[in-house]
């Protein structure tokens, strides 16, 4: 008979009441204890403090540390002789973290291959193309697609394909020109975009896998005939019924994907999502999630994406996050809810981790002059031992702060309050001294969870500042590696503000490709 689990939650004095409240709501069959390390703030606990002050109750089988505790769990596990884990940052997330109110999430798998098109490859050097391809691959792309432009020579196409292949990347060539497709295939391209029934002979002249499209987006029978020919020949291929932009056949094109899958349940398919993400001026993350959800339902295993517009600058990361979440949800036969925050950029499902009453209780126990900033449903809370103010305008707090002679501290508080106001207005989670979590819409800082943050950015510059030349004074400066602000000469500003010289003719995106506007 196995030993029943007994979890020990390690905490500090300020968080203990909240932890007790949350732990009291855990299932009755889960045995737990709370071990108070005797420090106010759990994040300041060190390995030495935990080793000296924590005594495990008899039968303890696991220790859970606060998420912001910088102690090394492996070192503590060796000391106590039981597994030690770092829990969630916020106490309210503990039940979900334990898997008691939410499913265990595995986002390591997916079944969607991302083709990322370099739309202006013909205008780039081989070195630039390789650098761009490696960057796209690092972000999550599986195949680098070289896009050819109408009436634009691509003399270095073969060299580009070979250079990308030499860098270990899969390559596709995307062109309206049969000659360019032949050249790309001859250079070793893995895929060719896009062939229809009139150009399908090329598929039998090369080992490259063709992506089949209809003669026109609304001519689905022509796609069916191309599919039949490839199946009879026993040759691999992908089929793409072509996604159309909104107000230009979008709904009908979605129906064509459904109909194609119904007629051909076993074939490999592709969807080019750029005609919606690029040609809809809306945050692309939600659009991407919807399209990848459709791909998941229809078992479409490939997407062709492009990033031309600034508002789609994170399209690779968005598709990568969406494919993992949709795969996990489909595997669980579940809605795509409760699989992390990667697809939540502007708002959080649970933005406020404390109520106004809980914050007031914590504020009443503070005995030092350091300012704490927390958000709740009623606004931004700022408090120390002397004040507790609540508001929704960051700038309105300044008269209440005793920092008129302390520029560094005023700067820090202004930045934090502005960040808190942004989070409160959007409904995002705010944590003092932490960057806001923008999901896959921005890169997250990678930090060592076993090391304390560098001191300095909250230190005073006034009478209590550390003496010049001391360790604390060095830490109070800019963080290591930070780029200092630079002064731009007025002449440079004027030059950069001057009207731009005429550029290349305007283009439009059609079926995932850039073409001259007058020919679109």
UniProtKB/TrEMBL annotation:
It holds the Pfam family DUF6513. Residues 454-520 are annotated as: Disordered. It comes from the Bacteria. InterPro entries: Dihydropteroate_synth-like_sf, DUF6513, Pterin-binding_dom. Coiled coil: none annotated. GO terms for biological process: pteridine-containing compound metabolic process. Residues 95-360 form the Pterin-binding domain. This is Dihydropteroate synthase-related protein. The lineage of its organism: Bacteria, Pseudomonadati, Pseudomonadota, Alphaproteobacteria, Hyphomicrobiales.
């Amino acid at each position: 008979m196995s030993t029943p689990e007994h979890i020990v939650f390690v905490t500090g004095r300020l968080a203990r009441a909240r932890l007790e409240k949350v732990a009291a709501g855990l299932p009755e069959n889960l045995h737990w204890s709370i071990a108070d390390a005797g420090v106010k703030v759990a994040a300041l606990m060190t390995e030495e403090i935990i080793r000296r002050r924590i005594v495990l109750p008899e039968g303890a089988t696991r220790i859970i540390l606060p998420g912001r505790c910088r102690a090394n769990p492996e070192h503590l596990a060796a000391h106590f002789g039981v597994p030690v884990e770092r829990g969630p940052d916020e106490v309210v997330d503990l039940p979900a973290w334990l898997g008691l109110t939410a499913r265990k999430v595995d986002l390591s798998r997916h079944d969607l291959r991302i083709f990322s098109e370099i739309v202006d490859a013909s205008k780039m050097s081989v070195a630039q193309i390789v650098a761009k391809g490696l960057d796209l691959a690092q972000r999550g792309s599986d195949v680098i697609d070289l896009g050819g432009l109408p009436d634009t020579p691509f003399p270095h196409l073969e060299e580009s394909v070979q250079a990308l292949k030499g860098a270990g990347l899969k390559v596709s060539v995307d062109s309206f020109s049969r000659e360019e497709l032949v050249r790309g295939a001859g250079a070793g391209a893995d895929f060719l975009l896009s062939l229809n029934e009139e150009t399908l002979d090329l598929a039998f002249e090369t080992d490259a896998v063709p992506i089949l499209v209809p003669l026109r987006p609304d001519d689905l029978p022509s796609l069916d005939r191309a599919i039949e020919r490839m199946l009879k020949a026993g040759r691999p291929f992908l089929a793409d019924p072509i996604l159309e932009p909104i107000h230009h056949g979008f709904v009908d094109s979605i129906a064509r994907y459904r109909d194609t899958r119904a007629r051909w349940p076993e074939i490999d398919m592709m969807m080019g999502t750029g005609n919606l993400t690029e040609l809809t001026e809306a945050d692309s993350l939600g659009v991407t999630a919807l399209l990848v959800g459709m791909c998941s339902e229809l078992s479409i295993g490939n997407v062709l994406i492009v990033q031309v517009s600034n508002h789609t600058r994170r399209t690779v990361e968005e598709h990568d996050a969406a494919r993992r979440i949709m795969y996990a949800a489909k595997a669980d036969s579940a809605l795509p809810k409760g699989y992390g925050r990667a697809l939540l950029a502007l708002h959080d499902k649970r933005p406020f981790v404390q109520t106004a009453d809980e914050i007031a209780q914590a504020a009443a126990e503070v005995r030092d002059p350091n300012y704490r900033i927390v958000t709740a449903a009623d606004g931004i809370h700022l408090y120390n031992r002397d004040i507790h103010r609540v508001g929704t305008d960051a700038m309105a707090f300044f008269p209440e702060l005793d920092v008129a002679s302390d520029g560094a501290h005023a700067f820090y508080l202004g930045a934090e309050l502005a960040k808190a106001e942004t989070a409160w207005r959007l409904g995002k989670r705010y944590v003092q001294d932490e960057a806001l979590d923008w999901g896959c819409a921005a890169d997250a800082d990678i930090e060592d969870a076993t090391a304390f943050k560098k001191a300095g950015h909250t230190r005073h510059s006034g009478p209590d500042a550390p003496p010049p030349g001391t360790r604390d004074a060095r830490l109070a400066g800019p963080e290591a590696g930070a780029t200092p602000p630079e002064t731009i000469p007025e002449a440079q500003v004027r030059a950069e503000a001057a009207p731009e010289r005429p550029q290349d003719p305007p283009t439009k995106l059609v079926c995932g490709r850039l073409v001259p506007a007058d020919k679109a």
